Amino acid sequence: MAGTIVADTLTHSTAGSLTTDYVVNGSAKAWIAFNGTGTIATRNSFGVTSISDNSTGNYTVNFSNSFSAADYAQQTSGDAAASAHFGTASITETYTTSATRGRFFDAAGSGVDTAFANVTTHGDLA
Amino acid sequence: MTPDFTGTHLWDRLCWAKENLEPHQSDYRVVYEDSIDECAKILVADPNWMACAMAGGILPPVWVYWELAKDEAQPDFKRHTRGYLLHETPPVGPMTEEEAIEYLIQKDVPQHVWQNWDEGNRPKMVICKKEQLPQTRVWRNAWRISDEIKVAA
Question: Domain segments of chain A: what residues?
Fold first, then answer.
């Protein structure tokens, strides 16, 4: 591919070196920011084929590039409303190599639709 | 125009697409029911993925995902050993928006839904426009596909 640089190590003039494995392994392999209210919609993303609105505050993110195993690390976060900015508790409910399902809850522990939902996934690709 | 990505890792293809393709927000929504105990689910295509599908030359054929799903369904599955299918299988050509939705259904909707979508008393899956969905989510957990839906011949 044009513009490709092949390198195993990056070296700074004073701060030392690191192997490019760190860069690859440290990059999020899939991420998405979406509006989970109304007819849910993606704001921005990478490595995602689709999202599913499963029920109130319950969403599935489907990956373009499967992970090698269901042992990836995932972070979910969300704000229930742009103006209020009250936090939501979030959990990852299921992991497969091709999709993950997350849920968002309000302070009372009930499912809540999340206006600013974010999912970031790190791990090894298949 | 999409470069020749034959043999290029899918990750690299997606990186190129992110930099070079304009996201496409589809108005199509796929409504499906995969359990009688749960409400209807709504599948929404990702705009960056839709751009890849419509550009062509980036995405692997959908059967690649089926093969990986078969591997993962094995009781002794630990890690994928056939990930090369994603990267080495020649990418599919450009799709229309409607063809991309069909691809997406076959990738992201459970197979038991789309393979038998019109069997039984009523359809288990419907493709619609987002304007046709309820405008309020007050009763979101009670959403169901209408019994009055008629399947087009």
Answer: 28-122
For residue B37, the cross-strand partners are none
Using pLDDT thresholds of 50, 70 and 90, give the confidence band for residue B148: confident
Query: From chain A, which residues contact B within 8 Å (Cβ)?
Result: 1-2, 29, 32, 37-42, 45-56, 60, 62, 64-70, 96-99, 111, 113, 125-126
**What's the token pair of residue B133?**
């969905």
Q: What is the pLDDT of residues A6-41, one digit of tens each?
A: 889 999 888 888 888 888 888 999 999 999 998 899
Across chain B, mean pLDDT equals 94
Quote the ipTM score. 0.95
Set of chain A residues whose Cβ sits within 8 Å of the Cβ of B107: 49, 62
Chain B residues with at least one Cβ partner in A under 8 Å? 3, 5, 8, 10-12, 14, 16, 18, 25, 29, 38-39, 41-49, 52, 59, 65, 68-69, 72, 78-80, 82-83, 86, 104, 107-108, 130, 133, 137, 140-141
Domain layout of chain B by residue ranges: 10-142
First to last CA, chain B: 37
Q: Which residues contact B120 (CB under 8 A, 6 or more apart)?
A: none
Whether residue A54 and residue B41 make contact (CB cut-off 8 A), yes or no, is: yes
Q: Comparing C-alpha atoms, which of A36, A51, A58 is closest to residue A117?
A: A36
Q: Average pLDDT for residues B123-145, to the nearest whole number?
A: 93
How far from the centroid of its chain's Cα atoms is residue A3's Cα? 28
Residue pLDDT, tens place only, A34-69? 999 988 999 999 999 999 999 999 999 999 999 999
